[in-house]
C-alpha cells in the first residue's frame, strides 16, 4: 500500500505518492481548489487515492519557525481531519517548515523559468514533505 503526501495551500494542493515499499516519493500533480471547499478537494483526490491504493495520507503542517501553529497550520489541521474522515484513512500531519522554500531553491538551481516554477512548486513541496516523512519512518 502506498502513502500520499499533500502540500495544502489556499489555492492549490501539491500531490506526491510513495512507491509500494515506502522508500521514495514521486510528484503526481497539483490540484486547484478553493480553500474551505473540502468536498471539491475530496472529489479531486479520490482518483489518486483509488488508483494508487493509498493506505495513509501525510499532510504538510506549516509551523511557525518557533514551532507554534499559526493560521496556515490550523487550516492544514482542518483539511487533514476532513480528508481522513472522508477517505477513512489514517492521516498524519508532518512538519513542512521550509519545504516550499527548499523546492523553490531546487527549481532555481535547475534554471527553471518563473512560469514553470509556479506550475510545479506545490507538487515539488509535496514530494519533499513525503520524502522527509518516509526517511524519518525508515530509521
UniProtKB/TrEMBL annotation:
Superkingdom of origin: Bacteria
YqgF/RNase H-like domain residues: 1-103
A GO BP annotation: rRNA 5'-end processing
Record EC number: 3.1.-.-
GO cellular component: cytosol
Gene3D superfamilies the record matches: YqgF/RNase H-like domain (3.30.420.140)
A GO term, aspect molecular function: hydrolase activity, acting on ester bonds
Species name: Pontibacillus marinus BH030004 = DSM 16465
Predominant localisation class: cytoplasm
Function in brief: Could be a nuclease involved in processing of the 5'-end of pre-16S rRNA.
Protein name in UniProt: Putative pre-16S rRNA nuclease
CDD domains: YqgF
Keyword Nuclease set for record: yes
Amino acid at each position: 500500500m502506498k502513502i500520499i503526501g499533500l502540500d495544502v495551500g489556499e489555492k492549490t494542493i501539491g500531490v506526491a505518492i510513495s512507491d509500494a515499499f515506502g522508500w521514495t516519493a514521486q510528484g503526481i500533480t497539483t490540484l486547484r481548489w478553493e480553500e474551505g471547499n473540502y468536498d471539491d478537494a475530496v472529489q479531486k483526490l479520490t482518483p489518486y487515492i483509488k488508483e494508487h491504493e493509498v493506505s495513509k495520507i501525510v499532510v504538510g503542517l506549516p509551523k511557525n519557525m518557533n514551532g507554534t501553529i499559526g493560521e496556515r497550520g490550523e487550516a492544514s489541521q482542518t483539511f487533514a481531519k476532513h480528508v481522513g474522515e472522508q477517505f477513512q484513512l489514517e492521516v498524519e500531519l508532518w512538519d513542512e517548515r521550509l519545504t516550499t522554500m527548499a523546492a523553490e531553491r531546487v527549481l532555481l538551481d535547475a534554471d527553471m523559468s518563473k512560469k514553470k516554477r509556479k506550475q510545479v512548486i506545490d507538487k515539488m513541496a509535496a514530494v519533499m514533505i513525503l520524502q522527509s516523512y518516509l526517511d524519518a519512518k525508515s530509521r
